[in-house]
Amino acid sequence: MRPKLVLFGDSITEASFSDGGWGASLAHLFARKADVILRGYSGYNTRWAVKILDKAMAGIGGDAESPAAVTVFFGANDASLPDQRCGFQHVPLEEYRENLRSIHAYFKKKWPSAAVIFIAPPPIDEEARIKYPSGQAERTNEAAGKFAKACIAVAKELSTPVIDTWSKMQEIPNWRKSTLSDGLHFTTLGNKVLFYQVVNILIDLGLSEEKLPADLPYFYEVDPNDPSKTFG
Fold it and tell me: Which CATH code, of 3.30.470.20, 3.10.110.10, 3.40.50.300, 3.40.50.1110, is assigned to 4-231?
């Protein structure tokens, strides 16, 4: 049975199967070796994520079919400024922390053997997020940084792997334009940055593409004169 990798998050996860997306790159990397399952919900925050867990994860598998790993990528919407146009998405910082704990607890109860990987929210290019007529950004990089640090702190508390997307992307030259397409969502380069970070953690967890067996023999391993001999 192929291992499963579940991607759970907001729009940056939902769009991860787009051309050049980090989820699509994972599916390509693990072709015939693992199934990458997309559970992305554009605009969702952790408050809503906690409430949809049962429905979102329905059909993925029980204890006997536990995913090998689950990524949890929320915070960009939680960090929306409460007094701006996306204020209805805002979640107070302490509630965000508690929601992450609840999501982690849900997965560890449902799939005890699954690795839960937190992904901190990305940085924000405020200039690109300004919408008129208000002339103000509905998110700030400072606020996103606070939520990223909270995510990292909760991950440390829970001893679960975490990717510091907020810091990683700001290490890239001209990161505002090179990694972000609209001040929040990812360019091809931004997707690559996250993809390699996820791959590195999966390798640390023993889920490298090189170590996973292929699903059924490769074509050059099939005996053309007696295929059933190859397939057993």
Answer: 3.40.50.1110
